Amino acid sequence: MFSVEVRDRIMIGHSLPDPFFGPAQAMHGATFVVDVAFFRESLTRQNVVVDIGAALTVLNETLKPLNYKNLDTLPQFEGVLTTTEFLCKYIFDAMALAARTGKLGTDAADLAKIRVTLHETDLARASYEGALA
After folding, report:
1. Of 18, 40, 45, 103, which has the highest C-beta tally within 10 A?
2. 30 Cβ contact list (under 8 Å, min separation 6)
3. Is the pTM of this model over 0.85?
């Protein structure tokens, strides 16, 4: 299987108000390196997996409304524990929609799967991977 991966980053603030999270219950900041990998069984007629420029643009557009924001105050996250894992799925959904609607190029709807990885530090990361078919 072929793959192409693009990267961006965001800085956010949030709290995780549940005793499970210990000190992370309090307001804190995080800087995430965000990787999005696109997979397909065979290359397009242009011999690519996906338009890298379009993938970078869509990823940036997806992250921009979150960057330098307190996620606790955003309406779409009201009452949600915005864990790293949750944010992976949130970004995946946006990238999958972009693939299905042509924002990643005309052949992007044929992608096999997408994986989103958020790196919290050099020691910890989380991912969400899903099929597009």
Report:
1. 40
2. 11, 12, 13, 14, 84, 120
3. yes
Is residue 89 within 8 A of residue 128, CB to CB? The reply is: yes
Q: 66: part of which helix (H) or strand (E)?
A: none
82-107 pLDDT per residue, tens: 999 999 999 999 999 999 999 999 89
Of 42, 38, 32, the residue nearest 85 (C-alpha): 32
Backbone angles phi, psi at 51, to 5 degrees: -70, 110
Among 40, 61, 60, which Cα is nearest to 132's? 40
Tokens representing 88? Answer: 């992976």
Task: Give the H or E element holding residue 88.
Answer: helix 84-100
- Judge whether 56 and 8 are in contact, CB under 8 Å: yes
* Burial category of 118 from C-beta neighbours within 10 Å (exposed 0-12, middle 13-18, buried 19 and up): buried
